[in-house]
Specification:
Length: 76
């Protein structure tokens, strides 16, 4: 216990430094940052399901364009 009292100013200084430099965060701060990251991701990126739907639509459009192209070539 006596050693702990001897080093207590150093321990307090280290704890204050860690808090000031934001090396140690609270669960509330972590949750807030997590929500911010999720919101940014939702704004900037598309979901995997939406991507596959869009890819499917492009494939269907390509097939239709190929059919139209074939019809145009057949007429000439």
């Amino acid at each position: 216990m006596e050693n702990l009292l001897h080093y207590s100013p150093i321990i307090i200084a280290i704890i204050v430094f860690l808090i000031q430099q934001r090396i140690v965060v609270t669960p509330e701060q972590l949750e807030k940052k997590h929500r911010e990251i999720l919101e940014d991701v939702e704004e900037k990126f598309v979901t995997l399901n939406s991507f596959h739907d869009l890819k499917e639509q492009f494939s269907e459009m390509k097939e239709k364009i190929d059919k139209i192209y074939d019809c145009i070539i057949a007429v000439k």
